[in-house]
């Protein structure tokens, strides 16, 4: 079947749109971390967009930031979206405390030093984070 | 159509450069790596085996790779000719080569014999692809980032780019002057993966024996230096459907695009 030449760029655009659009349907966690059981009670999940979470390694480090945070139950990181879904006990902690823990100094094992400003929370539950 | 393709190539190249600079300056959270379809293949094993992506790759890489497989099965290597920024850069280098060495074709400074050309396309690209995939799958890291001309050129001195990375990029561009499209033809791992799919792609250029005058303008215009004027149908898996041949053909209807039926 004879095909007009414009079919080629049209197909390229169509498949590029399918690729980028299709990515929205996929959501594979980079890191899933369950912390120590924090007791019974209602739980809440806060969705954070964090500058500095850009790959599996940086997501692992961000997860380490919450290992001693009281009331944090679970973290699911989507590195390619710079996103951390943090489940916590509202009776023990709140998003502000979680944000402070993530943005706190990061212990660097290779140098044995604390690094500052590694992570910056830019969005909390879809709302731009204030300074 | 030539002008439209040139606009596509300029747009994608500028967009890649802007994306790299924005990420480097901290103005954007997605780097140029996010939009590399080959990253989707590099990360596929990690996703199957470890249920997570290889570092610095993600859903977009994987979805783009899957979409690209679909595109190749219909429109062959149209991605390379229309939407690959690195392909555009190497094609422009090839055009510069034609002017520098006053050649009428994309054969370049050295004319590589067809058998050697075919062997290099298969062996070199397969070796490069196998090495990259084996290393990425074993380590879970994009270990060849510093050697990747796409990343070195568009990441605005991104992570893992060293001084020698620019040396490699310069050497590849210089090689592209001597042998136009050398990267795409002999080294590109994505090109290697797309080649068998492209070979069975449904959209094909056909030559009408009645209308064709045998002037050879199509051969001279082909950036991949394919034999367009010989066969009645361009079956090569290297055809990028850039349509330079149809644009160069002086006889209307001598070259046209056809969608082959599933059974043919």
Describe the structure using short key phrases:
heterodimer; A: 131 residues; alpha+beta; Alpha-Beta Plaits; six-stranded antiparallel β-sheet; two-stranded antiparallel sheet; 3 helices; 9 strands; elongated; B: 264 residues; mainly alpha; 12 helices; 57% helix; 4% strand
Helix content of chain B: 55-70%
The number of helical segments of chain B is 12
Q: What letter string, H or E per element, gives the SSE order of chain B?
A: HHHHHHHHHHEHHE
CATH fold-level topology of chain A: Alpha-Beta Plaits
Tally of discrete structural domains of chain B: 1
Average pLDDT metric of chain B: 88
Distance between the termini of chain B: 28 Å
Rg calculated over all Cα atoms of chain B: 19 Å
Q: How large, in whole angstroms, is the Cα Rg of chain A?
A: 20 Å
Cross-sheet strand order for the largest sheet of chain A: 2-4-5-3-8-9
Q: How far apart are the first and last residues' alpha carbons of chain A, in Å?
A: 61 Å
Text of the CATH class of chain A: Alpha Beta
Shape of chain A: elongated
Largest sheet of chain A: 6 strands, antiparallel
Work out the number of β strands of chain A.
Answer: 9
Could you give the count of β-strands of chain B?
Answer: 2
Task: Determine the mean pLDDT of chain A.
Answer: 87
Structural class of chain A: alpha+beta
Overall structural class of chain B, as computed from helix and strand content, comes to mainly alpha
Strand content of chain A: 25-35%
């Amino acid at each position: 079947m004879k095909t007009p030449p414009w079919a080629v760029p049209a197909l390229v655009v169509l498949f590029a749109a399918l690729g980028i659009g299709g990515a929205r349907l996929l959501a594979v966690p980079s890191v899933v971390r369950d912390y120590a059981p924090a007791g019974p009670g209602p739980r809440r999940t806060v969705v954070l967009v964090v500058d500095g979470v850009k790959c599996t390694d940086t997501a692992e480090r961000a997860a380490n930031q919450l290992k001693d945070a009281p009331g944090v139950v679970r973290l699911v990181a989507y590195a390619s979206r710079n996103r951390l879904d943090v489940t916590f006990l509202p009776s023990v902690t709140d998003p502000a405390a979680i944000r402070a823990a993530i943005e706190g100094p990061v212990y660097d094992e290779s140098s044995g030093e604390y690094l500052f400003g590694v992570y910056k929370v830019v969005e909390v539950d879809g709302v731009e984070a204030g300074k | 159509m030539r002008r439209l393709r040139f606009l596509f190539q300029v747009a994608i190249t500028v967009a890649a450069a802007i994306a790299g600079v924005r990420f480097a300056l901290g103005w954007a959270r997605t780097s140029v790596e996010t939009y590399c379809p080959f990253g989707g293949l590099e990360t596929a094993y990690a996703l199957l085996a470890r249920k997570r992506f290889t570092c610095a790759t993600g859903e977009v890489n994987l979805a783009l790779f899957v979409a690209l497989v679909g595109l190749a099965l219909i429109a062959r290597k149209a991605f390379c000719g229309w939407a690959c920024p690195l392909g555009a850069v190497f094609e422009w280098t090839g055009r510069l080569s034609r002017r520098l060495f006053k050649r009428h074709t994309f054969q370049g400074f050295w004319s590589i014999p067809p058998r050697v050309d075919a062997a290099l396309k298969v062996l070199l690209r397969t070796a490069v692809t196998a090495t990259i995939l084996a290393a990425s799958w074993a380590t879970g890291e994009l270990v060849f980032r510093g050697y990747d001309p796409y990343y070195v050129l568009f990441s605005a001195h991104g992570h893992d780019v060293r001084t020698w990375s620019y040396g490699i990029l310069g050497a590849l561009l210089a090689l592209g002057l001597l042998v136009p499209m050398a990267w795409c033809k002999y080294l590109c791992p994505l090109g290697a993966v797309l080649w068998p799919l492209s070979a069975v792609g449904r959209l094909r250029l056909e030559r009408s024996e009645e209308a064709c005058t045998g002037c050879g303008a199509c051969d001279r215009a082909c950036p991949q230096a394919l034999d367009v004027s010989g066969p009645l149908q361009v079956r090569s898996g290297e055809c990028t459907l850039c349509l330079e041949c149809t644009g160069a053909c002086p006889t209307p209807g001598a070259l046209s695009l056809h969608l082959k039926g599933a059974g043919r």
